[in-house]
Amino acid sequence: MANKNYYDILGVKKDAKAEDIKKAYRRLARKYHPDVNPNDKSAEEKFKEVQEAYDILSDEKKRKVFDRFGYYNDNLDPDSPFASGAGAGGAGGFDFSGFTWDTGSTGTSGGGSSFRDIFSDLFGGGGGTKREPEPPKPLPKKGRDIEIPLALSFEEAFSGLTTNITVNRSEQCSRCMGAGDTGGPVVSCPTCKGTGQVMKTGGRLQFSQVCADCEGSGRRRQPCSLCHGKGVTPKTEQVKIRIPAGVDTGSRVRIPKKGHGGRLGAEPGDLFILTNVGSHRFFTRKGDNIFVTIPITVPEATLGTKIEVPTVEGRAQLKIPPGTESGQKFRLRERGFPSLRNPNLRGDQFVEVQIKLPRIISEETKELLRTWEKANPENPRKAMGLE
């Protein structure tokens, strides 16, 4: 497999200064951070690659190894120049071309570099200790969103609602300003126990994820004593919310910047209200339209009349034409719910009439019905071939 070019990964030149490398790393880490790209495996791999490149190029000694041999082997044994995988010129050994042996004389032959000089550059004279890499600088991080369910009555969903709710959120830590530390000594990350990875559970599956607190390095500075390294502190707040007219069960109402606090000056997340609208004792809603069933008498259906029908906003007049049949529907225009997409539009209300027969019929009424039947002979089942 081809060796990685860490300069190309960070998009900097080979002679780039340490500050330029740091700027390039912070820009790319912010772009590919798993919190910014949730469930994006390609972004997560790119973030790891950027982290690896910065780990090598930000360390002066590691960078010298990479510049000399074209790659860096983390298992390189500083006490042995012949460690496995240490060379770039062959399998398991250094490429000696261009170098001369230093036999202890005051000079070198042919103007080449001596092995003693090389290992002095790489390992501080061969007797130094390996310097631990600095943990990555924390990056500005937008706060997480909050979702809160809210129960509404049928009428509140129709008219809209303005109210106050209690929100348990967080805000940027006032002591460390969201950094999570106050510049103390470097320690093993307490969140991931120095591994750089944390375990997540999704259903029956378990998988590892880059630790957000140390950004995968396994090390961080001593956490802030106020926020315990989180960069945010808890806060309980009364938030005024406005639920627009026309919401339905499952609607999401956004209140900007009232989610959890951001870090290092980043914006807070948003607050989302998830509405759950209750049922009505005689109205039924379908989309923006309202449906209701109204009983009418036999004379009203036969002779026609005007009746009052209920709407969410009060009563309305409805004309029943002569000969109305049970189950017939009438429309009251723009008596339905306001549209969430366009508040200037409204749905309709549909009224279905059901002919209600009297429970008790007197002998006098029965005689009138017999007389009416004789005067109006009709077989409503004739079309079905029934007598």
Structure write-up:
This protein is of the alpha+beta class. The chain has three domains: 6-101 and 112-123, Orthogonal Bundle (Helix Hairpins); 146-277, Urease metallochaperone UreE, N-terminal domain (HSP40/DNAj peptide-binding domain); 284-361, Sandwich (HSP40/DNAj peptide-binding domain), CATH 2.60.260. The chain is 21% helix and 28% strand. The chain contains eight helices and 17 strands. Strands 12-13-17-16 form a four-stranded mixed beta sheet. The radius of gyration is 39 Å and the shape is elongated. It starts with 5 loop residues before the first helix and ends in a 12-residue tail after the last helix.
What is the CA-atom radius of gyration, in angstroms? 39 Å
Beta-strand portion reads 25-35%
For the largest beta sheet, what order do the strands appear in spatially?
12-13-17-16
CATH topology of the largest domain: HSP40/DNAj peptide-binding domain
The number of domains is 3
- DSSP strand tally: 17
Question: What profile does the largest beta sheet have?
Answer: 4 strands, mixed
The unreliable regions are: 76-130
Helix content: 10-25%
In quaternary terms, these chains amount to single chain
In CATH terms, the superfamily of the largest domain is Urease metallochaperone UreE, N-terminal domain
Q: What is the first-to-last residue Cα distance?
A: 90 Å
| SS element count, helices | 8
Shape: elongated
Topology:
Blueprint: H1 6-10, H2 18-32, H3 41-57, H4 60-69, E1 99-100, E2 113-114, H5 115-123, E3 146-152, H6 154-159, E4 161-172, E5 181-188, E6 197-202, E7 205-210, E8 219-223, E9 232-243, E10 252-255, E11 271-277, E12 284-286, E13 289-297, H7 298-303, E14 305-311, E15 314-320, E16 329-332, E17 349-356, H8 363-375
Parallel strand pairs: 1-2, 3-11, 13-17
Antiparallel strand pairs: 4-9, 5-8, 6-7, 10-11, 12-13, 14-15, 16-17
Helix pairs in contact: 2-3
